[in-house]
Structures are given as C-alpha cells and as structure tokens.
Amino acid sequence: MKHLIIIISSILFSTLFYNQYIGLNLSIFSVLSVIVLAISNTHKFRNKITIFYTLMYLITAVLVFIQYTNLSILANIIAFTTLVGSVTESKSSIYVQWYNGVYTSIAGFLHRRFLKQTIEEKKTSKRNIDVLHLVKLVGIPLVFIIIFIVLYKNGNPIFNDIISKINFNFINLQWLLFTVLGYYLFSNIFKPVQVDSATNLDLQTGNILYKPDTFSTEAIEKEKQLGIILLLLLNILIVFYLTTDIISLTTTRPTDASVYSSQVHNGINTLIASIIIAIVIILYFFRGNLNFFKDNKNLKNLAYTWIFLNTTLVIIIAIKNYEYIASFGLTYKRIGVNIYLFLTFIGLITTFLKVSKIKNLWFLFRINTQIAFVLLILFSFVNWDYSITKYNINHAPSLDLNYLINLSNNNAVLLNEYRESANLSSEQDNKILAKHRNYIKTVKDRNWQEYTYSNFNIKTTNEYTK
C-alpha cells in the first residue's frame, strides 16, 4: 500500500511540475503532500500544532494560486518544511522543525534505511525484496538480450527490418528521472524523521535561567559596576543623539528625494549598529549570575531605559520613512525599511522580556523565529507589486512610472487601466501597452498546471479578446 501511494504520488508529481511553471500545480501538490503525510502519520494530525501548520501550508498554496508572488511561493516552501518538521516532533522549536523538515525532505529515505533503523524495521527489512537480486534478474537478461539482438540483426535482414521499425521515442528519459525525483521526495516525507541530537537537546532545554548554587559575589559586583557605567554612558549618548534628531525632524523639511533617502538610510544604518550593540551588551550582562544578584536593580533600570530609547529611535526613523513615502510613494526599499523597523521593535520587546522574566538565549531564538514565521505568512497575503502601484497612482505626489513598469506583471492590468485614463508620453504609453500584452499572452499560453486566479479572472473580463 505504501509503495502504491508513493508511485501514484510520484507520477502526479511529474504530471504537475515537469516542464511547467509554478501555478495551480503547487496548490495540488500541497494538498497531495498533506494527504500522504496524513495517511502515514494519522495520529500526528490530531495534534493542534500540526493542524495549525497544515492550515498555514494550505493557505500559502492558495495565496500562490490567487496572486502568484515570489513571497507567497517562499512562504509555501517554508510552511512545507515546518509542517514536515512538526510531524516529526510538534513540541520542538520552530527552527528545529525547519531543520528536521529540510533533513527529511533531502535524506529521509536514506536515514530510515541505513542510519536509524529500529529493531522492528530490521526485522521487516529481512522480508523486503532483495534489491541486488532484483537488479540481477532484470539487468543480466536485458544485457544479453541486447547483445543477441545486435548479433541477430547482422545475420538476418528480415529480423533487422523488424527491429529497426521499433521506435522508442515515446520514452521520455527526463520525465522518468523527474518521476524518480518525485518518488524519492514522497518516500522521504512518507515517514518524516528527526535529527535526534538537535531535537532532544531542544526538548531538554527550557527558556528559564536557573540560579546556580554558588557564585562569586565579588566578581558579580565588579561586572555590575562595569555594566552600570557602560549603560549609563550609552544612555546619555543616545539621549543626545535623539535630541538632535528630533530637532532636525521638526525644523527641516527636505523636498528632494535624495535628501530624504539619505536621512532615512543613515538612520537605518545607525539603528542597525545601535540595536545590535544594545542587544549584545544586554545579553552579555544578563547571561547568567547577574540576573540573581540582589543589588542589580540599577543595572536593570538602565537596560530598560536603553531599550526604551532605542524604541524611540525606531519611531523617529519610522516617521521619517512615512514622510518619505507620503512625498515620493512606495518602493520595495521603503517597505523593507518599515518591515525592518517592525522586526527591530519586536526584537527590543523580546529582549525586554528576556531581562525582566529572567529568560535564557534559547527563549530569544524560539520566540523570534516563531514571530518571523508568522510575519512571513502574513506578508505573503499582500500582492506587493499591485499594492505599490495602486498606492502610488492614487497618492504619490511624484509618480515614478518607470519604476512601476519595471515591477512584475502583477500590476499589468492596473497600469493599463491607468494608461487609458492618463495623458502619458508615447514612450511610457508603449511600454505599458507592451507590458500588458505580454502579460495577457503569458496568461493565455499557460498550461492547466500553471493556472492562477488571473486565468479565470481575465477570461471573465474578456481580456483575451483585446
């Protein structure tokens, strides 16, 4: 039954993806993968965490079909490895699930067969087909049949004519190899495996720091003094920087895009260095015994203050970036700045929790990777090229049309609508028209495996007839 399921799945895999672009095939493959995993690991799918990752995986597949963005494809791939890793051990951290998911997808079959066989598997393997003997049964007769066919062709012209008429062109070697790849992939995920060393270490390691039985009070006192002096000076420095930055923000209004860009990117560079140093310093001083020192209140308050001041820095950069966007429109870099600022804000919050709740470094890894996964799924809901184009057309005082034309075809229909209603130069008009026609042709020429929502949407609006 197992081999039949894998064989059928591998044939479907080749049918879906051989010589095809991504589209409807990815959604069908996602459903097929969930079915294969559920058949072979039914009890695992009673777990709420596994059910959650299953839903995330299927949702990202639907997003690929609806809007076909690189981000949604990436989210689907990561959701796949997360789901496979969750089936191996749902209680492990998400980054360990990624590790197990990737390992299973690449080497699950080899792991089960050669590396981590249980006693039951060893007993079962004795009843399995002798692969070497099977190769001999097929290979040796085939070799001799070919040899004698060549000999008989030279000795009998009628036999030679019959053999020459046999056409093996219907055999597609590449398709067969692709099917073998599909068979190997489904064999890997049929029974997901885990890397025991990494998984067990993760399961045995909690998030809480524990107080040691003994430690040197003198050494901790010296470390606390160093921390207070360092954090106090850094707080004074960042207050001075923030004061000058706020004055600059409230008294100057640059009208040139390059000036805005310089301010925002310089602020981001400052922010990157500041946050990295801040987190490293805080993690260093609160890595162990100092968390349990009774007289550490001042040090903690300075750490909280620095986190708050860095949060203020994030807000100021966000305001600058907002004004930048309001004046010159959206671009991927400006969106990226906002995303980075949000991730930085999350990092500061988790660092605050690490210090206040006396958590260890594993806590930061776990919670931040979980947040990153959720944000990736959420961001993949947005068709960014379409959203950037729509915002800039409706709100940007200075419209960079060439930038929008160079985006993916996801905005082709929207740009064409704008072209029909706006007074553009002949060069821009022709570029948008060519982009739209190329998009329509691309959609029209897709095979059913490559279909996305646009195939059905364009048909209903009679775009093919234009």
Task: List the defining traits of the structure above.
466 residues, mainly alpha, 20 helices, disordered C terminus
Molecular structure report:
By secondary structure, the chain is an all-alpha fold. It folds into three domains: 1-205, no CATH class; 217-359, no CATH class; 384-465, no CATH class. It contains 20 helices and no strands. Helix 4 (70-88) crosses helix 15. The longest helix is centred in the middle third of the chain and has 35 residues, at 217-251. The two termini are 51 Å apart. The model is unreliable at 462-466 (pLDDT under 50).
Question: Which secondary structure elements does this structure contain, and how are they paired or packed?
Answer:
Blueprint: H1 2-17, H2 24-40, H3 48-67, H4 70-88, H5 94-115, H6 119-125, H7 131-155, H8 157-164, H9 173-190, H10 196-204, H11 217-251, H12 257-285, H13 297-328, H14 332-356, H15 361-379, H16 384-395, H17 401-405, H18 412-421, H19 426-444, H20 453-460
Helix pairs in contact: 1-2, 1-9, 2-3, 3-4, 4-5, 4-15, 5-9, 7-8, 11-13, 12-13, 12-14, 13-14, 14-15, 18-19
- Helix percent band: over 70%
Strand-residue proportion: under 5%
CA radius of gyration: 30 Å
Residue windows where pLDDT falls under 50 for at least 5 positions: 462-466
Mean pLDDT metric: 84
Largest sheet: none
Count of discrete structural domains: 3
**Beta strand count:** 0
Summarize the structure.
The chain has 20 helices and no strands. It has 466 residues and is mainly alpha-helical.
